């Protein structure tokens, strides 16, 4: 039996989406049947090309209550316009790992990225804590849960628990191997870190221009 897998990729030039449609007839461990979104669930994925950040708008279309996950302050006007035009009431905006069981999705923030993970070399970062948190909180979710990260640097938009357990080149390894990988990434000092870490420590409520 042929099943169709359709996945959206975002070109970071900000201008084009490519869709890859593959007919798959072989049994693969990583292919899972997604839990469909319920009819009253509104879902939007927005993108900031400067920091490669995804911002998610989720809403209940019956009571029109909305939440924003991983908002980027430079795009507050864009998000405000969408919320207003759709007649939604924004209840909450935050950078969190959030699991929505009913829709079969989890938003993984900087912890788990598609085939990657957030770096742990900032002040207070710990590879061991990250590994244990992903393994106990994300990898224990049902295999077909879709995962939406806070960033992707290669235009990928979504993954699944099954895919990351099988193919994540860091988090599928043992704890010791993971710590070793994370301690030897030798990443450049991030451009916006001196702004981002103090802001994150106060949940982003930092030098926010008055609305
Ligand atoms: N190259 C980017 C990196 C930004 C960065 O460090 N991002 C965090 C998430 S906010 C991260 O963990 N990125 C993963 C990575 O760069 O591998 C920059 O310099 O701005
Ligand atoms: Fe981030």
TrEMBL record:
Pfam families, per database record: Lactamase_B
Span of domain Metallo-beta-lactamase: 93-141
CC terms in the record's Gene Ontology section: mitochondrion
GO biological process, one term: glutathione metabolic process
Organism domain of life: Eukaryota
GO molecular function: sulfur dioxygenase activity
Alphabetized InterPro entries for the sequence: Metallo-B-lactamas, Mito_Persulfide_Diox, RibonucZ/Hydroxyglut_hydro
Stated name of the protein: Metallo-beta-lactamase domain-containing protein
